[in-house]
Amino acid sequence: MTRETGLHYQALSLDPSVNMLSVDVECWHYLALRNLTGETLQPCRACAEMTRDLLALFQAKRARATFFVLGSMVEAFPDLVREISAAGHEVATHGDSHIPCFKLTPDELRDELKRSADRLGELTGDRVAGFRAPEFSVTKRSLWVFDVLSELGFRYDSSVFPIAGRRYGIPDFPRGPVRVHDGEGSLVEVPLSTVRLRGKNRPVAGGGYFRLMPYPLFRKAFQQVNRDGYPFVFYCHPYEYSAHRLSLHPFSSRRVPFRGRLVELKYNLFRNAMRQRLERMLGEFRFAPIKEVLSNVLPS
Ligand SMILES: [Zn+2]
Questions:
Q1: Cα 95 to ligand 1 centre (Å)
Q2: Domains of the chain and any CATH numbers
Q3: How far does the centroid of ligand 1 lie from the alpha carbon of residue 21, in Å?
Q4: Ligand 1 mean position to 112 CA, how many Å?
Q5: Separation of 201 CA from ligand 1 center, angstroms?
Q6: How far apart, in Å, do the first and last CA atoms of the chain sit?
């Protein structure tokens, strides 16, 4: 299939019963306060501990995942990266700055990715294969990201949300994993899961979509994705599933605007039920790290 962008996509056939579990590891306090007050903080220990909580939950449910770790967390908590890898999970990169790709130049992204992949490689002894862009920021404005990734030897990307979102999304992108040919190399894109509803793709992949949807409805959506022939691609953040309520105030040296209260409220809503819901999903469906699910189709 050829698009006006000059990219060619080739659909990949994968076993739809092995789904992909992924975690974006970042410091919630650091990112929320950077948005709200402009402060630049160090990633906090609480977010590292919440990641350890999630590791324990995955171990109890015998689930293995891909952890896309943000550069600031890697620098602050290198041992955490080693622990993730030692527990049998895949370690991949979420970039360094958490600035959306369409706000970076190709050179800036290239530098970030090279630095973070080298550092993660040193810590795990494994070459990094995959990237998840901050805020799913591979959009029509930033399709050049595929070139940069191929050039650096990345083997897959999981950043495209095939929806018409307000902040992100490529609504006419294929809904399942595809090989992307960009003239130079080829890599695999693993789009976040959607279902078709009234002629449009609707997001169901994880995050707030998972937290706010009644579980039986989510289960139906999950099964529908599998029936459509695709493994489900689930994403989450450690701070969504920790028993601890999130609060910005103890971390900020400035006055947190009222909007901060709304942000806290949004993330603390139904907090206690969330962990059980995640456990339920992990008990009902089979998951593996992305690189493993793609093992037969990845470029070498
Ligand atoms: Zn993120």
A1: 9
A2: 8-293 (3.20.20.370)
A3: 15
A4: 15
A5: 22
A6: 23
Round to whole Å and give the CA distance between 73 and 292: 24
Say if pTM beats, i.e. exceeds, 0.90.
Answer: yes
Task: Give me ligand 1 centre to Cα 87, in Å.
Answer: 22
Ligand 1 geometric centre to CA of 1 (Å) = 30
Q: How far is the CA of 258 from the centre of ligand 1 (A)?
A: 23
Distance, in Å, from the CA atom of 126 to the CA atom of 128, rounded to the nearest integer, reads 6
- Return all residues near 273 (Cβ < 8 A) that are at least 6 apart: none
Q: Greatest CA separation found in the chain?
A: 52
Ligand 1 centre and the CA of 158: distance in Å? Answer: 12
pLDDT in tens, the chain (300 residues): 444 456 788 999 999 999 999 999 999 888 888 888 888 888 889 899 999 999 999 999 999 999 999 999 999 999 999 999 999 999 999 999 899 999 999 999 999 999 999 999 999 999 999 999 999 999 999 999 999 999 999 999 999 999 999 999 999 999 999 999 866 668 999 999 999 999 999 999 998 899 889 999 999 999 999 999 999 999 999 998 888 888 887 877 788 888 888 888 888 888 888 899 999 999 999 999 999 999 999 877
Q: Residues 91, 124: contact at Cβ < 8 Å?
A: yes
> What is the 120 CA–ligand 1 centroid distance (Å)?
17
Q: Cα of 134 to ligand 1 centre, how many Å?
A: 5
Instruction: Please tell me the distance between residue 179's alpha carbon and the centre of ligand 1 in angstroms.
Output: 24
Q: Which two tokens stand for residue 92?
A: 């991949």
Q: How many residues are present in the chain? A: 300
- How far is ligand 1, taken at its centre, from the CA of residue 147, in Å? 21
